[in-house]
Amino acid sequence: MTAPSLQDGPAFLPAPQPRFDGVDLQALAARLGTPLYAYSANAIRQRIRELQQALHGLDATVCYAVKANSNRAILELMATAGLGADIVSAGELRRALDAGIPAARIVFSGVGKTEQEIDAALDAGIARFNVESLDELRAIERVAGARGATARAAVRVNPDVDALTHAKISTGRAENKFGVSIAEARDWFAERGQLRHVRLDGLHVHIGSQILDLKPFRLALHRVAAFWRELVQAGHPVASIDVGGGLGVRYRAGHDQAVAAADYVGVIREALAGFDGRLLLEPGRWLVAEAGVLLTRVLRIKHGGERDFLVLDAAMNDLQRPSLYDAWHDIVPASTQTRPLATYDIVGPVCETGDTFARGRTLRACEPGDLLVIQGTGAYGASMASTYNSRPLAAEALLDGGRYALVRRRQSHQEMVAGEQSAQDWETP
Ligand SMILES: *Cc1c(COP(=O)(O)O)cnc(C)c1O
User: Fold this and answer.
1) pTM for the whole thing?
2) In which residues is pyridoxal 5'-phosphate bound (predicted)?
3) Which of 25, 192, 263, 281 is the residue whose CA sits 20 to 30 A from 388?
4) Which residues of the chain have a pLDDT value below 50?
């Protein structure tokens, strides 16, 4: 099954969306302006519950992948539900701690942790490092040694599995930059006695993102399980297995379907049967993507020679996924008014052809000022936004049963340019 592309033709007309989590979206947009990200607290809680129920009876910690959506209010929701965090930078470490996620539930992934970041993580007392290279393992040994501390570590193994997802979000092939081969990981364990400041006693795997098919998960976990059994037989401790994230969600109504937590956890239970250590899970997208929408107004309608363009007040700087991954997002009106159908290329105002949300998309005919809802944008939306074209970062609101809270105010021009200055104080390094 291939990921839907923004160029696929119309097949199914998704329903308009006047409300989200009990909040009237027209009223919300009138109040807070557009472009505006809106997140449903109840939709996120529902996903958390579904996952926690599926994990019942297992010693499992869910470490939310902060990069999917790092807004403080979202992290606080995760903290309240008892989740941990999967971080990839010192910035995410601070966000997670500030939101009340205990350090003991934080794991640190990523191929380029700096010594300062390793030091900050040791200082905070995080649960473990997911180590991606021998060079990094030595850096952690060095930094922990300098602090007189012991770091806990898991080796991120690259199981050489094709996740059947978009190439830019596939991470588990031998050719990808992530993790080490099982052969190399075997050597790390064989020589773990030489590590004086690192306790290497965990395995980690993460094969990619937006995975809708359970087969790659199953294949990767079976490879990890075989390795875990081999390590135990060789007398090595395996205290934790981190199965990563990557669960896919529905971006296109009538076309795809989010992975069901029970099915996914069923694969974990089956592949890792008999494992009596701690399981760690790192879902990001699956918890928040469908719990977010991007509200945007139609600025104008441009009738081109060959195509009609709908120009929105949101752009690729607000939501990069269509331009970066060719990703499909359903785009529907907030109004339930019935109008004739029309077909548009839906674009933003940024000066790039890549600033396109959809091509040849059929929806109810639009007029300038109409409010549109770009769905499935709770993950890798605001967290990937930039100020390209000097467009300030969009506002974000959390919705909860008919109420809303502004959780990021719209960036002001002053905030956007803060830190820049004229070249006046010339120095030599
Ligand atoms: C990005 C990432 C995740 C989360 O991926 P999703 O597809 O959003 O679930 C989990 N673990 C690691 C190591 C990651 O890099």
Assistant:
1) 0.96
2) 246, 282-285, 380
3) 25
4) 1-2
